[in-house]
Structure to design on (1155 residues):
């Protein structure tokens, strides 16, 4: 056991050693990841987007979902608390279905679900967040963001345009991956590709940012995809009508608004 | 009668003949070995291809298989290995911390059983394993909360946690009786594999892992793929044990009869070269060695030995008379030449008739057994004479000395005296015998009418085989290890574009806005132009979308958005399996099926909907129902899809919700049970039409077995009747007399009737081996009649009276027949020790066929000939003597 630990430590030291230290970007892996998280999930004080999601299964059969995501950062803090409101409009039979997420730092998120046809607001108990987001290849955590504090990060490579960060979970039992590799764009800090490895060291799940646009000065991923080799198939999300700093009132992120959606913000 | 050219050649050039046979055998072995061992060098040759999959009993393009594979793809289903865990040493069965930890470890291990084969990854499909740690649980988690989590996220640390796993699983109908046994003490894991032929290797790996566990729990591995793959593997192993064992026993018995090791090696050589030749040609022509064709040696062997025993028997009796081997051989061959040719032709015809069955492996089997039989004949008439010529003179001296005045010495022997007794009895009491035969035939026909056509590949293993034990253990405790799947989809033409247009109009007009009115006005034009539902809706959507984008204020935007929503609603009217009435129909069908004992359980879309609905509504029992609107169903299902395994939904319904799949777990894989379920469903669907007219179909291995069995039975029956006719024609031709031909058919008719009669009376199922054996019985049963009749007629030509002829026929010819019956009948009894039921069946059958055919030939033929002497031997004009009736 101790021999293994030594070997592991040796391997880690080697991994760090082979990375050329760069004078200009003297920046720790953790700092890169923090910036990336902020770039991906915390642009502006709040924001909204209309998302068209296409879920293609292993046989290429497609299903679509349309929803609006409203997001507000509590106190406009990067990598801090957040509120999400996800409002479904299509397919017609799930119209007005909504999710509410209060994202916390250092503790489990609060989540609510509203099902209009059953006129039911349900709190989703704190549990695994790495479950499918409405049947897609994305997980809940992919939509709301995984806290940089949950993993340990190592900068394993630096290319002309990207930092390649390898991250391993601090609580391996809580997640299905053994590690993941992230390609983070050097100037925008947008993660453009993430590869998840299973316990056998094989990549089984890949996220890609397909299109990044500048929206109101914020580099924004407007098309992304998630592929899962285990179950097969791919989900793509296309973001339209992206808007930042709209001044969303905080009170719409409450249970009451699940039943009476804030229509003026969902157009 | 003259000696055939080939025999003459063989006696003149015996060494050359032996060399030729040796070269032939070596060539055949090389033909298989070279491309198998060095496929690159000998790429122009066909390597040995082994196929152990009974599914290949049906052709690749057989509609039922095409549908089976298409549906497996469409619903992402795989063949399942079932691993049952039972523990009778604890009160909670397997629900203890220790055993569940083992189960957890086994599940994790199972995920890793994968390997590369031809560039593709094969083995276990980890993501679809059904085990406590791989399935999701949905349950109440405090006030107003619902929790989605793994059923057993990690190995339990205490027995209490283990019991909690059980309690959770028992609340979920798709898991109860499937994952957790009805009595709550056992577990079953369902391990999907990429293809059936991986199952043996997967099972072996699992067993190795299980061997490390140290609790009182027992692990049982079963399921049709396991049974089928393992059967294939064991079949080949049995080939290597049973065939040589049978050879050895035949050898010993021949030695008992002929007491000359040197001499009786020759039939062994004939059998071996024939088998090598038949199998070599089979492989070289690119055919796969399948379960059926692996039985070729077992079939070719007795037939190959059969003729040789006739020759040796005759030679043994004649040699002392001539004291010259060449002359003895010529004598023997002149007597046996025609009967041997015709027994060969009839046997070939019997097996070749299998080429007309609709089952490819049976066709191959029939053709190559035919070839083997032909080779056996060729080597019998050449190799045996050549071999005899090459034997040192010394070896035969003993033969001669012992057999001085052989016929009289032999005539005093026990066998001879017995046979003469039989002959006398038959000639003296022909009416009694024929009456007995008629009674036996009548009873047999009654028995045949009682035959139950049934098969179940699991039952191909002996009852104490581990697969059978696992099968019993698991089917006692769980809903069933045999899987069948029932698909439901709208009957063609159930919906029309006009109906969609009307529904669209209704939905749009209900909105009662300007935007709606504008859209409604466009419906007729869109309807005219569209040739599909999708095009019709897309046309309207495009216009509405443009209008929405151009909207000035929120009110206008939402007006147009509502139009788009209504159009999507119209589109979703096609999602019939979100409709509560359709789900209730499935629910009714499920309830109906589960009333029947053989269906342990069904899993279908309503089960998921009801479970999620219940947990959303505080877990109340009363909420375990299908909600009242399609939207409520859809929202229940989107909730379900927030799980770890959203893809499981589409094992029960297609993503367009237009085709549903009901997974049936059956406690029995017997075809009659599956057939009964099929009929139940047909009747239910006819009596209770669904709200949307549906058509239904089946897939799954249990169902496929039913289909190939049906084909097998009818194919065999027609092949059998066809070859019966061919044999009759051949007999008529051989004896140049229709009446003689007809008489020759008597023993085989009685034999076959009696054998199948007994099968019907004792309630043995008419299954695959039994069906195939009809061909063998036809081919073998006629042989003795041919020998008996041919020899009788030869003798009659000399003696002129039937009485004297009969007495002679019950000398050497009858002894040859009896020796044959004993040698081969007993020789195949070792097959009874095989752990595979088809082998036992073949063993019993060959023995019973030979015994009955021998008995009926020696009793029925003389009795019938005695009764119809005048018809069969026509009086020679003027002389008061009879001569053998000829057509010309």
């Amino acid at each position: 056991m101790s021999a293994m630990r030594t070997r592991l430590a040796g391997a880690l030291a080697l991994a760090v050693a082979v990375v050329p230290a760069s004078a200009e970007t003297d920046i720790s892996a953790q700092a890169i990841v923090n910036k990336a998280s902020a770039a991906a999930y915390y642009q502006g004080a709040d924001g909204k987007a209309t998302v068209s999601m296409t879920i293609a299964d292993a046989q290429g059969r497609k299903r679509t979902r349309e929803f609006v995501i409203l997001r507000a950062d509590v106190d406009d803090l990067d990598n801090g608390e957040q509120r999400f409101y996800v409002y479904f409009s299509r397919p017609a039979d799930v119209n007005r279905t909504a999710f509410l997420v209060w994202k916390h730092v250092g503790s489990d998120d609060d989540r609510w679900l509203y099902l209009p046809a059953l006129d039911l607001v349900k709190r989703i108990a704190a549990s695994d967040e790495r479950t499918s987001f409405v049947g897609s290849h994305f997980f809940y955590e992919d939509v709301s963001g995984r806290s940089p504090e949950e993993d340990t990060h190592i900068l394993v490579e630096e290319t002309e345009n990207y930092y390649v960060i390898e991250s391993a979970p601090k609580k391996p039992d809580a997640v299905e991956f053994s590690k993941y590799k992230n390609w983070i764009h050097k100037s925008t800090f947008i993660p453009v590709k993430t590869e998840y490895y299973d316990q056998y060291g094989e990549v089984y799940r890949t996220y890609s940012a397909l299109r990044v646009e500048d929206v109101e000065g914020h580099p924004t991923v407007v098309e992304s995809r998630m592929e899962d080799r285990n179950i097969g198939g791919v989900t793509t999300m296309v973001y339209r009508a992206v808007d930042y700093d709209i001044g969303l009132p905080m009170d719409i992120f409450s249970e009451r608004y699940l039943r009476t959606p804030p229509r003026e913000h969902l157009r | 009668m003259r000696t055939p050219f080939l025999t003459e050649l063989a006696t003149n050039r015996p060494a050359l003949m032996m060399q030729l046979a040796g070269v032939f055998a070596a060539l055949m072995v090389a033909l298989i070995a070279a491309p198998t061992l060095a496929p690159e060098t000998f790429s122009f040759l066909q390597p040995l291809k082994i196929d152990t999959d009974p599914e290949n009993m049906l052709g690749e393009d057989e509609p039922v298989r095409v549908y089976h594979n298409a549906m497996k793809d469409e619903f992402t289903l795989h063949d399942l290995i079932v691993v049952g865990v039972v523990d009778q040493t604890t009160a909670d069965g397997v629900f203890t911390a220790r055993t569940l930890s083992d189960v957890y470890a086994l599940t994790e291990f199972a995920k890793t059983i994968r390997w590369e084969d031809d560039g593709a990854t094969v083995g276990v499909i980890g993501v679809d394993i059904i085990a406590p740690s791989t399935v999701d649980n949905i349950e109440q988690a405090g006030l107003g909360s619902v929790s989605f989590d793994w059923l057993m996220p990690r190995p339990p640390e205490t027995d209490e946690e283990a019991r909690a796993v059980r309690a959770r699983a028992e609340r979920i109908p798709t898991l109860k009786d499937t994952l957790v046994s009805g009595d709550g003490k056992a577990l079953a894991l369902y391990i999907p594999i990429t293809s059936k032929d991986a199952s043996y290797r997967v099972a072996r790996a699992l067993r190795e892992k299980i061997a490390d566990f140290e609790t009182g729990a027992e692990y049982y591995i079963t399921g049709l793929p396991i049974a089928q793959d393992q059967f294939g593997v064991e079949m080949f192993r049995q080939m290597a044990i049973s065939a040589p064992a049978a050879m050895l026993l035949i050898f010993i018995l021949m030695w008992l009869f002929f007491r000359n090791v040197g001499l009786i090696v020759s039939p062994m050589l004939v059998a071996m070269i024939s088998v090598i030749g038949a199998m070599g040609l089979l492989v070289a022509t690119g055919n796969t060695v399948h379960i059926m064709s692996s039985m070729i040696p077992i079939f070719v062997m007795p037939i190959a030995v059969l003729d040789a025993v006739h020759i040796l028997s005759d030679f043994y009796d004649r040699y002392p008379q001539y004291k010259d081997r060449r002359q003895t051989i010529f004598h023997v061959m002149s007597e046996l030449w025609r009967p041997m040719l015709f027994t060969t032709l009839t046997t070939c015809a019997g097996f070749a008739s299998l080429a007309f069955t609709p089952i490819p492996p049976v066709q191959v089997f029939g053709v190559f057994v035919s070839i083997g039989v032909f080779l056996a004949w060729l080597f019998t008439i050449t190799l045996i004479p050549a071999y005899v010529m090459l034997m040192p003179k010394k070896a035969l001296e003993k033969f001669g000395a012992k057999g001085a005045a052989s016929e009289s010495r032999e005539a005093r022997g026990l066998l001879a005296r017995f046979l003469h007794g039989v002959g006398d009895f038959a000639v003296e009491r022909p009416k009694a015998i024929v009456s007995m035969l008629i009674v036996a035939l009548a009873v047999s026909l009654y028995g045949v009418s009682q035959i139950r056509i049934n098969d179940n590949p699991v039952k191909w293993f002996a009852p104490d085989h581990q697969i059978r034990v696992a099968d019993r253990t698991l089917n006692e405790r769980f809903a069933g290890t045999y899987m069948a799947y029932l698909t439901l989809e709208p009957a063609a033409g159930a919906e029309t574009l006009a109906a969609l247009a009307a529904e669209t109009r209704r939905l749009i007009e209900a909105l009662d806005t300007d935007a709606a009115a504008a859209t409604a006005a466009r419906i007729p034009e869109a309807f005219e132009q569209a040739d599909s539902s999708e095009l019709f809706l897309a046309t309207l959507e495009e216009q509405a979308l443009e209008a929405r984008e151009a909207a000035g204020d929120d009110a206008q935007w939402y007006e147009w958005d509502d139009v788009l929503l209504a159009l999507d609603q119209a589109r979703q009217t096609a999602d019939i399996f979100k409709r509560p009435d359709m789900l209730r129909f499935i629910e009714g069908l499920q309830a109906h099926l589960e009333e029947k004992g053989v269906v342990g359980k069904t899993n279908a879309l309503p089960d998921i909907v009801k479970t999620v609905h219940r947990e959303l509504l505080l877990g109340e029992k009363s909420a375990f129902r299908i909600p009242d609107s399609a939207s409520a169903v859809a929202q229940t299902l989107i909730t379900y899809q927030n799980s770890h395994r959203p893809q499981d939904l589409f094992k029960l319904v297609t993503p367009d919700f237009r085709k549903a799949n009901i997974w049936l777990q059956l406690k029995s894989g017997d075809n009659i049970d599956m057939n009964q379920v099929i009929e139940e469903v047909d009747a239910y669907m006819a009596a209770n039409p669904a709200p949307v007219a549906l058509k239904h179909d089946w897939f799954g291995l249990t169902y496929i077995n039913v289909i190939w069995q049906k084909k097998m039975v009818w194919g065999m029956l027609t092949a059998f009747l066809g070859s019966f006719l061919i044999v009759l024609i051949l007999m008529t031709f051989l004896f140049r007399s229709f009446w003689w031909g007809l008489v020759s058919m008597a023993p085989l008719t009685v034999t076959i009737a009696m054998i199948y009669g007994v099968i019907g009376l004792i309630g043995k199922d008419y299954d695959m081996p039994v069906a195939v054996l009809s061909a063998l019985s036809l081919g073998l049963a006629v042989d003795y009649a041919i020998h008996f009749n041919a020899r009788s007629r030869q003798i009659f030509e000399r003696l002129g009276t039937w009485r004297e002829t009969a007495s002679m026929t019950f000398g050497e010819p009858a002894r040859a027949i009896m020796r044959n019956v004993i040698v081969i009948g007993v020789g195949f009894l070792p097959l009874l020790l095989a752990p595979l039921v088809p082998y036992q069946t073949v063993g019993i059958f060959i023995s019973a066929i030979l015994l009955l055919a021998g008995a009926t030939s020696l009793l029925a033929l003389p009795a019938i000939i005695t009764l119809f002497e005048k018809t069969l031997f026509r009086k020679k004009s003027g002389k008061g003597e009879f001569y053998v009736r000829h057509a010309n």
About this structure: Residues 576-692 of chain B form one domain. The first helix of chain B runs from residue 5 to 12. Confidence is low (pLDDT under 50) at residues 400-407, 876-888 of chain B.
